[in-house]
Amino acid sequence: MKKLFLSISLIALTVMSVVAQDVTGKWKTIDDETGEAKSIIEIYKKDGKVYGKIVEILDPAKQKAVCSECTGSDKGKPIMGMVILKGLTKDGSEYNDGTITDPTSGKVYKSYIELEGENKLKVRGYIGFSLLGRTQYWQRVN
């Protein structure tokens, strides 16, 4: 009887820890080409959707950069503080139906994000459908 109770408790704790994992918080972006850390993104929820803004640029030479290649309301705005993930909604284990902006090129892509562990976030930007795109893995900042 004790073994059954212990097994049920262990399963419940495992399920609760998976459910408790959330994409909100601060994440370190990694450059796909150089492997170097580039920035810190804060992911937050607003009106039932998920957004992410740049809260720190790690290269001192780029901290005052503006998005000269962006279009619309982001054109010419500082990259520091820019909301680059917009309007993602939860769908099972992933958040999708939103966009991600590459502040270097100014391009906006469809996007989805998904936790791949407590401290690893899969971030995919794509054109059209998700097979045509690029994936990055961000690391949680504690």
From TrEMBL:
Which Pfam families does its entry note?
Answer: DUF2147
Keyword vocabulary terms for this entry = Signal
**Ranges for domain DUF2147:** 25-140
Q: Does the keyword Signal apply?
A: yes
Positions in coiled-coil regions = none
**What residue ranges are annotated as transmembrane?**
none
Q: Where is the signal peptide?
A: 1-20
Q: What is this protein called?
A: DUF2147 domain-containing protein
Q: What is the lineage of its organism?
A: Bacteria, Pseudomonadati, Bacteroidota, Flavobacteriia, Flavobacteriales
